[in-house]
Amino acid sequence: MQALVLAGGEGTRLRPLTYTTPKPVMPLAGRPFLTFMLDWAHSHGVDEVILSCGFMSDDVKRVLGDIYDGMRLRYVIEDEPLGTAGPVRRAFDEGLLDERLFVLNGDVLTDIDLTGELAQHEHTGARVTLALHPVDDTSSYGVVPTDSDGRVEAFLEKTEGDAPTNRINAGAYVLEREVVEAIPPGRAVSFERETFPALVGDGLYGFPAAGYWIDIGTPERYLEATWDLLAGRVGSRLPPRDETGSLVYEGCLLSGAHVGPQAVLGRHCSVGSDARVERSVLHDRVVVGADAAVVESVLATRVRVGANARVLPGAVVGAGAVVGEDATIGEGARVDPGVEIEPGARVEAGDFVKAPEAAR
Ligand code: GTP
Questions:
Q1: pLDDT tens-digit profile of 48-97?
Q2: How far is the CA of 81 from the centre of ligand 1 (A)?
Q3: CB count, 10 Å around CB of 271?
Q4: Is the pTM value of this prediction over 0.85?
Q5: Cα–Cα nearest to 197, from 255, 161, 154
Q6: What is Dmax (Cα atoms) for the chain?
Q7: 189 C-alpha to center of ligand 1: Å?
C-alpha cells in the first residue's frame, strides 16, 4: 500500500524553530518527526511513501534519504505551495500513484488504526474515507458529523460556537484514484475547503478513529507530544527513559545539573552545575550555564543560556541564539535564531524578539 505524506507547509506556528529546520524533520524526542509517522504507516502495511515537499525540501531529503526501514521514499517537490489536495494531483500527474492510497498530514503523531480504516473503506465502497478523531476542544479544527453508516453529512471547517460533533478530521485519508483525477491540476487546491465538501453525499465516509492523536504544529502541542512520548502514552521506538522520565542522548555533560522530570537533551548538550532543565526540550549542542533554569521550554540547536539565566514556560529560543547571564526569557516568549539577549535583560512574556531578515 502507498501513502502520500503532505510535508510541504511552512510551519509558521512553530516559528522560530521552522526558520532553520522544516517541521517534517524537526527533532521530536530526539528523532526526526516524520520517522514516527513512517513507523506508524509501516506497521499498517505501507511499503512506499511519497513525500510531498516544498518549504526547505532539501533538508527533508537530506535527513530521510531514499529508504527508511525497508520502505521506499519518493519525493515530489513543489515550487509553489499547492495546498493539501494539489500535491496529490501533482504526484498523480507525475505517474506515481496507485489505484488507491493513504494521504496523511505530515504533522500528526498518532497510533490510529489505518488497517481498520482501510477495511471500512473497502466494506462501504467509499470513494474517500476520513479518519475522524474525538477531541475535547474542537475550536481549532474542522468537525465532521456522520450518519450511523459512516456517511459524512457535512464538512465544517473551524466553526464558531457549538459544534454538532467532537469528531475532527484527523488528516489520514484513504482515496480512490477517481477522486484524485477530479482534483484540478496545476493550482493550489484544498481537500478541506474544496474536494471534501463537494463529495458530501457522494461517497465520502468517516472512520471513527480511537487511540492517540495530536498534531505537533504549535509549540504547546510539540511539548505535549514530547511529554506523551516520554511517558509512553503513545508507542514509539525511542530508547528507554531514565528514572526522571527523561531522555539524554549521547555526548551530554551534566555534572551537578538537575535534569528532569520529562526533559529531552539532544546530542552533545552541556548543562552546568546546579542548573535546572525541567519538562523542556534541548535540541543538539545546547549549552546551559551554571545555576540557570529552563522550564517547559524549547531551545533549538546550539542555543547558549548563560549562568543564572531563566527561560520560563512556553518560551521557544531559535537556533544559535544566546541568552546572556542573568537574563530572563518570559513565559511564551520567542527569540529568533542567532539573536543575542544581553546579560541581565528581560524579554517580556509573549514577546517575539526578531532577528534582521538577513540573519535567519
Ligand atoms: P502553519 O503554517 O503553522 O499553519 O503550518 P503548515 O504550513 O504545516 O500548515 P498545516 O498545519 O495546515 O498543514 C497540514 C499539513 O499539510 C502539514 O503536514 C503541512 O506540511 C502540509 N501542507 C500544508 N500546506 C502544504 C502545501 O502547500 N504543500 C504541501 N506539499 N504540503 C502542505
A1: 999 999 988 899 999 999 999 999 999 999 999 999 999 999 999 999 99
A2: 9
A3: 28
A4: yes
A5: 154
A6: 65
A7: 12
Q: Is the CB of 211 under 6 A from ligand 1?
A: no
Kindly give the number of the ligand 1 atom that is closest to the alpha carbon of 106: 18
Cell of 206: 468517516
What spacing in Å lies between the alpha carbon of 7 and ligand 1's midpoint? 6
Phi then psi dihedrals of residue 198, to 5 deg: -70, -15
- The pLDDT of 172-194, averaged and rounded, is 96
If you take atom 15 of ligand 1, which residue's CA is the nearest one?
A: 105
Contact 78, 53 (CB under 8 A): yes
The pLDDT of residue 136 is 87
- Between CA 217 and CA 225, with CA 223 as vertex, the angle to 5 degrees is 75
CA of 10 to the centre of ligand 1 (A): 6
Does ligand 1 come within 6 angstroms of the Cβ of 87? yes
Tell me, what's the pLDDT at 356? 76
Among candidate residues 275, 232, 236, the one with its CA nearest the CA of residue 252: 275
Ligand 1 atom 7: residue of nearest CA: 9
Question: Could you tell me if residue 79 is left (phi over 0), alpha (psi between -120 and 50 degrees) or otherwise beta?
Answer: alpha
